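Lab notebook, bench 4. Still working through the backlog of constructs that have no structural model yet. Next entry is a single chain of 780 residues. Request: give me the structure tokens for it.
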Amino acid sequence: MAIAAKMPARERPRRHRLKDAAGKLSGQLGWKELCFGAAAALLIGGLLVGLRIREMPSYKAGETAVEEVRAPRDIAYEDAEATANLREAARDRTPAVYELAAERIARKEGDIRRAFAAGRRLLSEYQVTGTAGLDPARRTELLRRLEEEAGGIIPPRFLPVFLDCRFDPELENKILQVLDITLRGGVVADGELFRLDLKKGIVLRDRESLLERPLKEFPGVRDLPAAREYLRLLQVEFSGLPPPAREEIRAFLEDQLVPTVVFNAPETQARRDAAAARVQPVQVQIKKGKVIVRAGEQVSARAAAELAMLRQAYGARFIFGRLLGYSLLVAGLLYALWHYFVFYQKRHRKIRNHAVLVAVILVLEVVLVGLLSAALDILSPRVSLRDASDLYAVLPFALAAMLVTLLVDTNVGWIASTAVGVLTGLFYEDIYLAVYALLGSLAGIYSIRQYKERSALFKSGLTVGIVNACALAAVHPLKHDSFVFFELLAKAALGVASGLLASALCSVFLPALESLFKITTDIRLLELSNLNSPVLRRLSVEAPGTYHHSLMVGTLSEAAAEAIGANPLLVRVAAYYHDLGKMLKPEYFLENQAFGVNKHESLSPSMSCLILSSHVKNGLELARQAGLNETICQMIPQHHGTRIMTFFYQKARESAAAEGREVREEDFRYPGPKPQSKEAAILMMADSVEAASRTLSNPSAAQIQGMIDRLIEDILADHQLDECDITLREVRLAKESFFKVLSGIFHRRIDYPGYDFRVVAGNADKTRVLDTNGQQAKAI
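Model written out:
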């Protein structure tokens, strides 16, 4: 539990409560953050699209290619011509639908029966019997009546023949028999179309029962001319009639011919369309890296078609879709990163700075990998590898994870590794390469955590290379069916080169990013920890007491930071520079006065307070003039926080009480701010403990422990640690580490025989001796 959580909100200082509210607001996404996130997402998405899109040359069949063209990615396209051919074939295989119109036959037969019945009724009405002839008047009248009764069925030109035959029932039956044989055999209207359909297949469907049968079961289907010829053959049925009557009856039967097998065009078209729709489009696969055409070769028709498909695949819709997809994905990653900082990395006070840094590193990774990929695409035809994409193993995928780990921390490095792995898989459309990039990035995170010397980058790159080689060995049998040892060995060499390249690029970009975003890395801290630096040498000369105090504070702080898991190097370097401001007026600070006169004895408490507090402001200015990193500079005012200068405050109260005045406590406090990190809190505690330890002489372990406990309890009671994320457990561990270091400093030694080091001055008459506090106690 953090220290701040120990106090109810109403009991905290108002200044602290306001800062808490501001801290909550800082985690919200404002319009500036949203605009930057959208711009970064569009930029990275545009780079991912632009670096991978390659303009396909436009060659026509028969032309000579001037350059080799390879498929930049897997492309599947529809062969429209082949698909159309297959669908046309499916249409041709679909039988035409003809319908047997049996109702037409029945209707014709019914009409003829009614006409003959009407004729016989009229004959009976006119009392015409036998074969006796009719006088012309009656014949004319009877024909008129027949035309009225049956003229709609039997054309008037045929009525005299049937009248002469007295509408004989036997003749009626023969006519119906011949007509039925002809019509039920099947008559079609368009013989040519029928013959064409017959070659493809015909299905005959009964309109009444809806049963369907292939037409081969009905071989007697004829067109109208054939049906007329067939009627001529059936004239033998009317051999008992005179030839003129036979011809008239044949003409009548021809007039009664109607198509009884009818082509159903809508149903046929629907079935053929359905058959064509069931044909799947012919998909042509173009694998990534496939050589479409080589330089100097004549472009074939198929190659020209494939180039056209590639140009179409990389059209505006493809580019917009890819840009939208990449941008949304990157926006999601940046949003997740922001919330990770807000909710899980609260010790990072500069959330915006770190979010921008991660975005810049991702942009840098995308640009470098994209440019190197383009170079490898040009080189790949000259390298004999089974798959041209195997060359991508040399790309520095671990660069982003290494930079983020060094400049932010390990946990954010995980996020960067995930982002690199996801974007790699989408960019190259290769899941195996995504796994390879992710494993190499994770190796970069854990190999670069301890960056204490320049050679650490090379060691990290070598570690990444070894992990890359192992990853390639694992992925190779999954990607390829056969195993070739020398090919695997070559890929392992590419993996090692990838790690070394990532470390080399990291060493190039690290100083620039460190300076641009004002971030202190361990290697920079090591440079600042050099005691021979000009500013520390000046401190050792102008304020030697402060210099040695800073060294001791550094020792105490480093031990405490190691105990609680903070950054020991950062807190040690901050301790070296935390009192730089005392160089301007070293004589006003007790540790630099040696055995001289204390100048504060002649000053008022308020003036002494002003002089002492000014060393914070002066130290901050000197640190920035010396080019120290902002992280170090911020810890200079935080190491005192808003603590009160107790000695001068009490002195002022005593003086004010005698004069009847009041003294404000705020006037005797340091300007702050309070410690904002664990390292600053450790520095405050170590500074107080080291200064107080100077008052001890040959102390016992209980005295040392009591001094440490009392000082730190005063710091906690003054709420100095409320604004950092240090916990009570970590405070306890820090106190234990302070005790161990001070116990080692105040170790015991045996007395040297024949020496009394308490003697400090002497002459023939007297000798002065030091008491236990180092003061001249008595003369002997």
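Notes after review: Residues 91 and 631 are 78 Å apart (CA to CA). Residues 485-516 form the longest helix (32 residues). Flag for follow-up if needed.
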